[in-house]
Design a protein that fits this description.
The complex is a heterodimer. By secondary structure, chain A is an alpha+beta fold. Helix content of chain A is 32%, strand content 28%. In chain A, strands 2, 6, 7, 8, 9, 12, 13 and 21 form an eight-stranded antiparallel sheet that branches. In chain A, strands 3-4-11-20-14 form a five-stranded antiparallel sheet, with no helix packed on it. A five-stranded antiparallel sheet of chain A has the order 15-16-19-18-17, with no helix packed on it. In chain A, helix 2 runs antiparallel to helix 3, helix 4 packs across helix 8 and helix 5 packs antiparallel against helix 6. About 12% of the residues of chain A have low confidence. Helix content of chain B is 68%, strand content 2%. The relative contact order of chain B is 0.12. Classes of the chains: A alpha+beta, B mainly alpha. At the A-B interface, strand 1, helix 1, helix 2 and strand 13 of A face helix 1, helix 2, helix 3, strand 1 and helix 6 of B. Strand 1 of chain A pairs parallel with strand 1 of chain B.
């Protein structure tokens, strides 16, 4: 069969390609294959003991795989500790010993960042505006645990985390393990999204994708997108985060400047037609100048050459006026001429311009069917010639004057036109320069405004970070950071004016220079970068304590390791109180 | 003719990739970033050579499964992991065509054909389009592979060499010999009409 050749076949859209991506399925297949391979490994099954071991292991693993296969088809209900499963559980030969503590554990329940609830008609889709962020939900974006399309109201619960206190309050771990390299994520914004119908969790339709435009107040382009895998207890890299600017309001100045550039552009556009109009005027004026026709110099007849007379219409041939009473000499180029032609009485004779304009003429003689054409030269004889030459000289003088005048007038008109053209071209150049300057100015103003808006942004976020959400869960725009370096102390945490020391269950080192919260290992030295600003947030005996950045800074400078903590739990109402306490 | 920069990796990127590969060797769940990164590229490679999208998707999955199964055998040799994946894809595609020859398809754009004409110093005329298409699709499979990689997928010689497991010089020499033959066949067909 001949190979088929497709020309210009349309490309497969990315959406279609992505819809076929299923890493979970790949891992399942891999595991199934591994089991199959293990079962068929004859050498392994040589001993009876090994056979039993293999069967037991196989059954165990099959059960585990079956469980997870079911698990995938029937997504889990939301757990009490607020975890959301985003991927398959890792099957390992050495089972992971999980700590009793929930993976996402808000340290103080009333501190937790609350969800905002949005009602969405599943079959219609929706665009949700959450503060400055936007969530785009396509039609039929949800399915139930059986994979059937959801119809009716869906309760979308959504919350965002933007600063260090949000991170602490939510209890979302920011530790990141990338191929064994441990780091802490610096966040440029994080969100948690989930959906319910009548209290039952719903799932994102595998054929659909929600789009979340997360408003972020961090403008740097160093972040990646991650999704939290609460089973593997790690963040999963999705892609590099591409920045999108949210429409920055143009200031009055910019609008005015834009108006100015539009005006300038309009003036510039008007110039070429003006030059063209001037050119038309110039051409018209030149055409109106008196026409000059050079008079023909009379020719004296040559003796012995054949001649004849014609009745000439001098109005039709004004240049022949000088040849009134002229005779026409037959040119030597007329090979057809013979003297007998003069004996014929021709029924008609026509004269037209000859091959040499103004010098010779073509005479067409007709008699019935016979036609003779002769090139003739007008010539004068005797007194007629003298009179004609006098007339010619007079007319030639007038002609010369006329030509001189016309040339002068033409020159003048041309100079006038060129002067006007130069004015327009100079104006065009000036306008062009002005336009370039204005455009540079606009660009500079925009850059300045952009910079100003970012510098004064505060809680007003201007950068949109777009996430494609194919599963509910926690998504983050992050950049991995290693533990701070530069200085290290063995901290002792004291309360009640230093009278009692406490042993924290959790210690958060809050970096104020970057949006990072380091979760310190209990009992380990506290390392920090002396060039950065830090505060501490400590959990001990179910209570929350803080050490302000000012105190931290003072102690760090003096290389003291006793950190006086202030109990915060008593006065706490919400995350804003903690933000105030930590100076965020 | 511009060539795709997709193959370019900085040493830092290669190192990061190597870390992910090592982690994937320990635990298949860590293979995710590589799957995400290369899925589209491998699908593109497979689908370039066939007409059936579903088969291409199936084969792409097969390529990644093979990669995951054999990742322990993968050794870092200073080139992107992609080249290893392409070799698996190449092998899988050829295996498929051995059993189902009718699935083989050549896919190109008019611009690609023009580039070939430019390379063989022939003027691209529309009436010769069909002749050129016939000349290309009648090429032996190995030759067609090189033409596809270079002109239809716009890959650099370095990348072609990695995929076909030959040296860069060898890839160049082979391709120019093929182009010579294409030029001769093309001229012959233009002159004699078939």
């Amino acid at each position: 069969m001949a190979t088929k050749f497709n020309l210009n076949r349309p490309a497969v859209p990315d959406e279609e390609i992505n819809s076929h991506k299923d890493f979970g399925e790949l891992v399942n297949k891999f595991k199934a294959e591994s089991i199959q391979k293990a079962r068929s490994d004859v050498s392994f099954l040589k001993s009876k003991k090994a056979t039993y071991t293999a069967i037991i292991t196989g059954v165990t693993v099959i059960c585990t795989v079956t469980y997870f296969a079911v698990f995938k088809k029937n997504p889990p209900k939301q757990t009490a500790n607020d975890t959301i499963i985003t991927s398959q559980k890792n099957i390992s030969n050495t089972p992971k010993i999980k700590p009793n503590k929930a993976f996402i554990a808000p340290p103080i329940s009333k501190l937790n960042v609350p969800y905002t609830s949005y009602k969405v008609k599943a079959e219609q889709g929706a665009k949700i505006e959450h503060k400055q962020s936007k969530i785009y939900i396509p039609k039929n974006a949800f399915v139930n645990k059986q994979g059937q399309d959801i119809i009716g109201d869906v309760d979308i619960q959504y919350r965002e985390f933007h600063d260090q206190v949000d991170i602490i309050a939510s209890g979302i771990p920011m530790a990141y393990d990338s191929a064994g390299i441990k780091s802490t994520l610096e966040s440029a914004g994080m969100f948690d999204i989930k959906g319910f119908q009548n209290g039952e969790q719903v799932y994102v339709n595998p054929k659909k994708v929600l789009t979340v435009e997360l408003a972020s107040n961090n403008i740097t382009d160093k972040f990646n997108q991650y999704v939290l895998d609460t089973v593997a207890e790690n963040w999963v890299y999705m892609k590099h985060d591409v920045l999108g600017t949210k429409g920055i309001e143009k200031t009055k100045e910019t609008k005015e400047t834009n108006f100015k550039t539009q005006q300038l552009q309009k003036q510039l556009d008007d110039i070429p037609p003006k030059i063209e109009a001037e050119k038309v005027v110039y051409t018209k004026k030149v055409n109106l100048l008196p026409k000059t026709v050079q008079p023909t110099k009379p020719i004296k007849s040559t003796e012995g050459r054949p001649q004849f007379e014609l009745d000439v219409n001098y109005k039709e041939f004004p240049e022949l006026e000088a040849f009134k009473n002229a005779v026409f000499e037959v040119g030597s180029e007329n090979k057809n001429y013979n003297a007998k032609l003069s004996d014929i009485t021709w029924s008609s004779a026509e004269i037209s311009e000859g091959p040499q304009k103004g010098k010779n003429y073509l005479v067409t003689l007709r008699l019935r069917e016979r036609v003779e054409k002769l090139i003739v030269y007008p010539a004068l004889t005797g007194a007629n010639y003298d009179k004609a030459i006098a007339t010619y000289e007079k007319k030639f003088g007038e002609y010369k004057n006329l030509v001189t005048n016309r040339e002068a007038d033409e020159k003048k008109l041309k100079e006038e036109f060129e002067a006007k053209q130069q004015v327009y071209l100079a104006e065009q150049k000036k306008l062009n320069e002005e336009l370039v300057r204005e455009r540079i100015k606009i660009r500079q103003e925009q850059d300045k405004q952009f910079a100003e808006q970012f510098s004064t942004m505060g809680n007003q976020q201007c950068i949109m970070r777009t996430f494609q959400v194919s599963n509910f869960g926690i998504y983050n725009s992050d950049c991995p950071n290693s533990m701070p370096k530069g200085a290290s102390i063995n901290p002792i945490y004291v309360i009640n004016n230093g009278t009692n020391s406490i042993t924290p269950t959790t210690t958060y080192l809050v970096c104020h220079t970057k949006n990072i919260v380091y979760n310190l290992i209990s009992g380990a030295p506290l390392s920090y970068n002396p060039e950065d600003t830090y505060s501490l947030c400590v959990i001990a005996n179910g209570k929350l304590y803080t050490c302000s950045k000012e105190i931290f800074s003072t102690l760090a400078k003096e290389n003291r390791n006793k950190f006086p903590l202030l109990e915060f739990s008593i006065a706490i109402n919400d995350v804003n109180d903690l933000k105030k306490a930590l100076g965020i | 003719m511009e060539f795709s920069p997709r193959y370019h990796h900085t040493s830092e990127m290669l190192l990061n990739e190597q870390q992910i590969i090592e982690a994937a060797k320990q635990n298949p769940e860590n293979f995710g970033p590589l799957y995400d990164k290369y899925y589209k590229q491998i699908f593109g490679y497979v689908y370039q050579r066939m007409d059936c999208k579903d088969t291409a998707f199936d084969l792409t999955s097969q390529v990644f499964l093979k990669a995951l199964t054999n990742i322990e055998k993968y050794e870092y040799k200073g080139v992107p992991f992609a080249s290893w994946l392409y070799r698996i894809a190449h092998s899988e595609v050829m295996q498929l065509f051995r059993t189902k020859k009718n699935l083989r398809t050549v896919n190109a754009d008019i611009g690609d054909l023009k580039n070939i004409c430019e390379e063989v110093e022939e003027e691209y005329l529309e009436q010769y389009q069909k002749i050129l298409m016939t000349v290309i699709k009648d090429l032996p499979e190995d030759d067609l592979q090189l033409i596809e990689l270079r002109f239809f997928e716009k890959r650099a010689f370095k990348e072609i060499a990695e995929i076909l497991n030959i040296t860069e010089t060898n890839a160049k020499v082979k391709l120019y010999r093929i182009l010579d033959r294409v030029k001769k066949t093309l001229t012959k067909k233009q002159n004699y009409g078939n």
